[in-house]
Amino acid sequence: MRHPAVADRFYPGSPKALSRTISELFPVSEKTKKSKALAVVSPHAGYVYSGALAAETFSAVEIPETVIILGPNHHGRGAAVSLSTETWDMPLGVVPVDKGIADLLLAFSKHIVLDETAHQFEHSLEVQVPFLQMLQKNLHIVPLVISQLAYPLCEEIAGALARAIKASNKEILIVASSDMSHYEPRQITERKDKSALACIEALDPHALYRTVYDNRISMCGVIPVVIAILAAKACGANKASLVGYTDSGYTSGDTDQVVGYAGVIVS
User: Fold this and answer.
1) 4 FRET partner, CA 20 to 30 A, in 125, 140, 202, 247?
2) Domain residue spans in the chain?
3) CATH 3.40.830.10 fits 38-250+259-266, yes or no
4) If DSSP codes are grouped into helix, strand and coil, which group holds residue 106?
């Protein structure tokens, strides 16, 4: 079992409180038409900061039974591309890994490594799971924690994801977990994030990669987002829609050092 690392910090650890919190974060309208998506970009801060945007993003799409979650490695533990196959014991119930997809990924790429150490303390994937559980009662996940990679390796990993998705004949959603710019004034953060989001909305992963690194944009999940876009395009994606953008200052009141958050749907 993989046990929660950030329950009672990033989100409520009590099943009742967590269920209530997420229900309150979901948009009020029940008439929102859900679209089929190949990938989404969702923020991973504490729910008080980015939970409403994550909830709005997930509630706008159909959540299939299998979700591949890509998150950045904040702790530097484990392999560069670390796959978890342990069952995740979450406050809202256990979530099994889709072993079939996991096995395909291991077969299709020598760079994807079975490594639980990268997942032990990582929050970027964990905070996404309760939203998915609330929307899909038969949820299975494929969790991948990813470090900084050269662009050709991003292409290789994305190719393995696309091959696995196609070989499975399943409806599968890719979730790329990422916050945007970190700890700069709101005006600078918005300018930098706008340039990165323009690349995402254009479905141009190489431009995103270059824009983030050339302009020193502290977007922690740029590699997961690049891989998600590459894989989604290989599966037929031709559109990216911005659900919303916000920053931590709207909660904290501090606009001198904000963290940016974006929700995007790729279809």
Assistant:
1) 247
2) 38-250+259-266
3) yes
4) helix
SS3 state at 188: helix
Q: What is the pLDDT of residues 81-139, one digit of tens each?
A: 999 999 999 999 999 999 999 999 999 999 999 999 999 999 999 999 999 999 999 99
Q: CA 143 to CA 183: how far, in whole Å? A: 27
- This prediction has a pTM of 0.97
Question: Which residues, at least 6 apart from 5, have a Cβ–Cβ distance to it below 8 Å?
Answer: 120, 121, 122, 123, 126
Please, what sign has the CA dihedral across residues 198, 203, 209, 210?
negative
Contact 260, 67 (CB under 8 A): no
Packing angle between helix 52-59 and helix 15-25, nearest 10 degrees? 70
Alpha carbon separation from 2 to 94, 127, 129 (Å, rounded): 9, 14, 13
Give me 91's structure tokens: 């406050």
As a whole number of angstroms, the distance between CA 61 and CA 59 comes to: 6
